[in-house]
Amino acid sequence: MAVSVRSWLANEAGKHFVLMLWLAANIWLFLDTYLLYSTGQQYHYLYQMLGLGLCISRASASVLNLNCSLVLLPMCRSLLTFIRGSHTMSTRRMRRLLNKSKSFHVACGVAICIFSAVHVSAHLMNVVNFSASFSEDFPALNLARYKGEDPKLIIFTTIPGVSGVLLVLILLLMFISSSQCIRVFNYEIFWYTHNLFIIFYIILMVHMVGGALKYQTNTEAHPPGCLRSSQSLQEPQADDLDQKQRCNEDAHFLPHYPQTWLWVSGPLCLYCVERLYRYIRSSHPVTIVTVIRHPCDVVELRMLKKNFRARPGQYILLNCPGVSSFENHPFTLTACPTENKETFGIHLRIVGDWTEHFAHLLLSQPRAALEILPVVHQRRYPTLYVDGPFGSPSEEVFNYDVSLCIAGGIGVTPFACVLDALIERWKSFRLQRLYFVWVCRELQSFYWFAELLCALHEKLWKENRPDYLNVKLYVTQDSLQSMSELRYRPLAARLQVGRPRWKLLFDEIGKSNKDKRVGVFCCGPKGISRTLHRLCNSVRSSGATFEFNKESFS
Amino acid sequence: MGKIEWAMWANEQALAAGLILLTGGIVGVAGQFRGWEFASYAIAAGFFVCLLEYPRSKRAKGTSVERTGQYCFTVCVKAFGPVTRNYYVRAFLHAALCVPGGFMLATVLGCVCLGIASLIYLAAAVRGEHWEPILPRKDTRKPVAESIKSPPQNPPPRPPPEIRRKQAKDVEGAAYDNPIAVTDD
């Protein structure tokens, strides 16, 4: 499929631009520091002793400073949610860039690992050179205590050496346990090792204490390379040389002050404040109002919390000490609190051991005596803490003229919240048309939101906007089935068996909405989102531009 | 804390440690540093650890994702039977392999990583985990019902002509019981 330039620019240009900007900053920093150390007068003698290793190690150190400060910023989720919500501060293009914050974090992390390897290798060369080219002329410059000192000894008896070894170990632990496999299957290992970052940063800030590398302070009085008057010259041109290279005094050296804290302390404080804010905000338990069981292992949970405000599409993190004290699990909100009702809800699918245990705690209530009590019987639900809400790409559904929402299975939850908001006030949004495609394996899954879909369909029909909502349901299991209830007839009429044919769907939507920007929102398995991404970028004769947004898990 | 599979983490750590050991060994030999014999040992040990750790184990519960092209490695590792199945053996093997790496600067990082991996394998072994090969599943398709293979030879039974005429005028009165049983397969 050929790529359409306009679509490609709409989908890929922003993030590639940011990537180029970041790469340029890194390259500039590397080259600038490299040239400083290789040509700077104050480093002349040090460069003579250490050679290339000095320049490469310092250049990679400044790149590391930049990346260690940048890597924390995409993880300040509450701050990003705030930026996403304030439409005055951000345009739609910027908000779409925020969707890629995790990728940026990963890019900075990978850069940290690569440049750490470069930095360590260069410093190993430096240590060997400190030992081999021990300087008798300038004893202040030396790190080794005597010529030919074992480099291992130098490393393990200086603060930069020991802190460097610890830093590398922590970085390796963090990097290895953040592989895709471990994040998907054993998230706790990833989370706990990644939280070692605080030790990493503390050690990083003391890494340069001790001043292994020194610069010359008196380059005017003692131009580097000048010869002392006591030394005899070979050539008989002493008079000429004397004028250019007269040494008034000996070279003085001073170590650098640690600079890393200048780079790193800002983002680190910001991140710590953010974590503290999230901890305080989630310290009050929520009240569980209702628990409803749905077919296909889905449980709906309705909760109440004071001062909880959320927008459709956002997600929350649940923590249930009765199941596990330290695990936080994300769930998209399926109902946001409004003026009419204060409760908010989630739909959770019972898949792993945490959800199984949690659902068991919610659903198995002791059966009281069956007589109707005059007092409301208090159900003993487990205590639950909610952190959030946090922003997600699906919040943008309302900011397009035409949106296409594609959901796979339980991925329908962000769009269910969108539909919920539309039922209350569909006229107040910019959205003029919504295409809703929901692909499920079993027919029973559609019953999770059948009521909501039919209610919205009926309301729009009554208000004379039947073309606002276009529902297409697909059930992929082979058996022929249909929804038999009378009240779900609108859905039964829009149900098809088999997988959707995306190209035809896109062509149809493109033709009906020529020259418009259609927001495509995908929340489902990777296969579907890859196909859709490709289709959004490909050439189309109809002329609508498709902007791709996807929800990512973990 | 939920069912954490320590073995998966140990496997990733050990594979990375093998690669680091290999790289460190190559650097040590190429630079001909002091103690380069340890570096040459590290190359061999790193290579061996990579081969041993490349095939992922099957998870006790849930879907397992295998690494690309790991099938031949799985077959080789499986051939050693209980030696490679048991994680205690792996823990002690890695602990023993990592020690010589600590004598040379270039390989010390690989040594420490392999040591950490050995500790995690010990934790996995204590919790009773063991290595299971991921073998391709032989999909047993549902046995196709006999009736599909042989299409019906005769057309479905039609009612006698009088009833057929009645059917055209009076649909309800033309209802009849099919003499031959029709099974819904």
TrEMBL record, chain A:
Gene Ontology biological process terms from the UniProt entry: defense response; superoxide anion generation
GO cellular component: endoplasmic reticulum membrane; focal adhesion; NADPH oxidase complex; nucleus; perinuclear region of cytoplasm
Function recorded in the entry: NADPH oxidase that catalyzes predominantly the reduction of oxygen to H2O2. Can also catalyze to a smaller extent, the reduction of oxygen to superoxide. May function as an oxygen sensor regulating the KCNK3/TASK-1 potassium channel and HIF1A activity. May regulate insulin signaling cascade. May play a role in apoptosis, bone resorption and lipolysaccharide-mediated activation of NFKB. May produce superoxide in the nucleus and play a role in regulating gene expression upon cell stimulation.
Pfam family, one: Ferric_reduct
Compartment list: Cell junction, Focal adhesion; Cell membrane; Cytoplasm; Endoplasmic reticulum membrane
Matches recorded under InterPro entries: Cyt_b245_heavy_chain, FAD-bd_8, FAD-bd_FR_type, Fe3_Rdtase_TM_dom, Fe_red_NAD-bd_6, FNR_nucleotide-bd, RBOH/FRE, Riboflavin_synthase-like_b-brl
Enzyme Commission number(s): 1.6.3.1
Catalytic activity: NADPH + O2 + H(+) = H2O2 + NADP(+); NADPH + 2 O2 = 2 superoxide + NADP(+) + H(+)
Spans traversing the lipid bilayer: 16-37, 57-83, 104-125, 153-177, 189-210
Membrane topology per record: Multi-pass membrane protein
PROSITE patterns: FAD_FR
Protein's name in the database: NADPH oxidase 4
Keyword annotations from UniProtKB, A to Z: Cell junction, Cell membrane, Cytoplasm, Disulfide bond, Endoplasmic reticulum, Glycoprotein, Membrane, NADP, Nucleus, Oxidoreductase, Transmembrane, Transmembrane helix
GO molecular function: NAD(P)H oxidase H2O2-forming activity; superoxide-generating NAD(P)H oxidase activity
Enzyme class: oxidoreductase
Domain FAD-binding FR-type: 281-396
Recorded superkingdom: Eukaryota
TrEMBL record, chain B:
GO cellular component, one term: NADPH oxidase complex
InterPro entries noted in UniProt: Cyt_b558_asu (IPR007732)
Main subcellular location: membrane
Coiled-coil region list: none
UniProt GO molecular function: heme binding; metal ion binding; oxidoreductase activity
Skewed-composition ranges (Basic and acidic residues): 161-172
GO biological process terms on file: macrophage chemotaxis; neutrophil migration
Keyword entries, A-Z: Cell membrane, Electron transport, Heme, Iron, Membrane, Metal-binding, NADP, Oxidoreductase, Transmembrane, Transmembrane helix, Transport
Renumbered residue ranges of the record's region Disordered: 138-185
Locations listed in the record: Cell membrane
Domain of life, per lineage: Eukaryota
Quaternary structure (record): Component of the phagocyte NADPH oxidase core complex/cytochrome b558 complex, composed of CYBB (heavy chain (beta)) and CYBA (light chain (alpha)). Component of the phagocyte NADPH oxidase complex composed of an obligatory core heterodimer formed by the membrane proteins CYBA and CYBB and the cytosolic regulatory subunits NCF1/p47-phox, NCF2/p67-phox, NCF4/p40-phox and the small GTPase RAC1 or RAC2. Interacts with NCF1 (via SH3 domain). Interacts with SH3PXD2A. Interacts with DUOX1, DUOX2 and TPO. Interacts with NOX4; this interaction mediates superoxide generation.
Record function comment: Subunit of NADPH oxidase complexes that is required for the NADPH oxidase activity that generates, in various cell types, superoxide from molecular oxygen utilizing NADPH as an electron donor. Subunit of the phagocyte NADPH oxidase complex that mediates the transfer of electrons from cytosolic NADPH to O2 to produce the superoxide anion (O2(-)). In the activated complex, electrons are first transferred from NADPH to flavin adenine dinucleotide (FAD) and subsequently transferred via two heme molecules to molecular oxygen, producing superoxide through an outer-sphere reaction.
Family according to the record: Belongs to the p22phox family.
Name used for this protein in its record: Cytochrome b-245 light chain
Organism from which the protein derives: Oryzias javanicus (Javanese ricefish)
